[in-house]
């Protein structure tokens, strides 16, 4: 469990007057101060994904993720959280609706192109090159996005590796650099996954349940890495652990049955009656972490 004192310390710094359950998050973040950055880094409208079996995973979603902020997406199992990330990253094509990234319509843009444009993601089940070292996994992830071009020569490899040291550092895995990725523990592999996503030098980082299955110590390490992320990167994190969410998120979006249930600060969301009912409906009890923050 995350250190609750650090969670409440964080909560006290949240704005007290943000309007609850407001889907209008149009104010510009202080960190999004370069002219080429749109206030709304991600904007989805009428976004819908129906799978062939008939499941409506995402049903007409309208929401925005502001530039340079930390956004969390929560909701019961099957709410459509992973599907939303897949649609934003371009791994899935929507059945209907539009996706705008930094002011540009990317609804029909391929996953590879979106990645080049600056959208990176991690997965619920991280995949890495097991026989390669941690450092080489990061170098490989950086390669398509780096300015290093031409044949794979030792000098180029060295310069690429050196430029990747900062990603190892941000992910807190410098000490593991020469370890084969296949020998990593679960939590270490998750941190590598984050390092690999950072190596794409993203503007938007989509994280799918990064804290899942981590020990208390692993969650602390993850929190440290999250706080070390470049300020200008827009982060969207799907997570069930509400203490974790409260510790890092500026805004929380709650999905239920593929629809928007509520948007607000962690404090507002923890106190939101509809959100509490959504969790009660699933498990019969409000998660401890939600109780702790209310
Ligand atoms: N490829 C697929 N084919 C058919 N149905 C799918 C597919 N992927 C997801 N679904 C269904 O869509 C719904 C939303 O799934 P999704 O994985 O987005 O939920 P989630 O909110 O990420 O859940 P969890 O918290 O369990 O990870 C679920 O009913 C799921 O069974
Ligand atoms: Mg999921």
Task: Write a structural description.
This protein is of the alpha/beta class. The chain has a domain at 119-201. The protein is 36% helix and 20% strand. It is built from twelve helices and ten strands. The protein has helices spanning 4-12, 81-89, 111-117, 134-142, 154-163, 165-170, 186-198, 216-227, 242-248, 266-271, 273-283, 288-293, and strands spanning 40-50, 56-66, 70-74, 96-101, 104-105, 119-121, 204-208, 234-238, 251-256, 259-264. The strands form two sheets. It has a six-stranded mixed beta sheet, with helices on both faces. Strand 1 and strand 2 form a beta hairpin. The chain is globular and about 55 Å long. The two termini are 17 Å apart. The structure holds adenosine-5'-triphosphate and magnesium ion (MG). Magnesium ion binds at residues 81-82, 124.
Keywords:
binds magnesium ion; about 35% helix; 10 strands; binds adenosine-5'-triphosphate; 4-stranded antiparallel beta sheet; disordered N terminus; 12 helices
């Amino acid at each position: 469990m995350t250190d609750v004192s650090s969670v409440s310390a964080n909560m006290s710094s949240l704005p007290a007057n943000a309007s609850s359950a407001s889907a209008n998050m149009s104010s510009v973040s202080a960190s999004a101060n370069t002219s080429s950055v749109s206030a709304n880094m991600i904007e989805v409208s009428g976004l819908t994904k129906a799978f062939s079996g008939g499941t409506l995973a995402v049903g007409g979603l309208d929401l925005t993720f502001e530039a340079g902020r930390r956004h969390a997406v929560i909701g019961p199992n099957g709410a459509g959280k992973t599907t939303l990330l897949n649609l934003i990253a371009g791994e899935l094509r929507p059945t209907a609706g539009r996706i705008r990234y930094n002011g540009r319509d990317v609804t029909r843009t391929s996953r590879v192109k979106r990645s080049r444009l600056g959208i990176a993601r991690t997965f619920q089940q991280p995949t890495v090159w097991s026989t390669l070292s941690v450092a080489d996994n990061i170098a490989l992830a950086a390669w398509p996005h780096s300015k290093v071009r031409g044949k794979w020569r030792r000098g180029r490899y060295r310069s690429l590796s050196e430029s990747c040291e900062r990603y190892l550092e941000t992910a807190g895995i410098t000490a593991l650099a020469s370890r084969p990725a296949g020998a990593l523990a679960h939590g270490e592999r998750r941190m590598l996954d984050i390092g690999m996503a950072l190596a794409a030098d993203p503007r938007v980082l989509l994280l799918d349940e990064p804290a899942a299955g981590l020990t208390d110590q692993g969650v602390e390490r993850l929190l440290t890495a999250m706080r070390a992320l470049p300020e200008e990167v827009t982060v969207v994190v799907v997570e069930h652990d509400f203490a974790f969410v409260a510790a890092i998120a500026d805004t929380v979006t709650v999905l239920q049955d593929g629809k928007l249930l509520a948007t607000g600060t962690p404090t507002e969301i923890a106190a939101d009656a509809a959100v509490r009912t959504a969790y009660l409906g699933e498990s019969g009890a409000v998660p401890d972490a939600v109780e702790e923050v209310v």
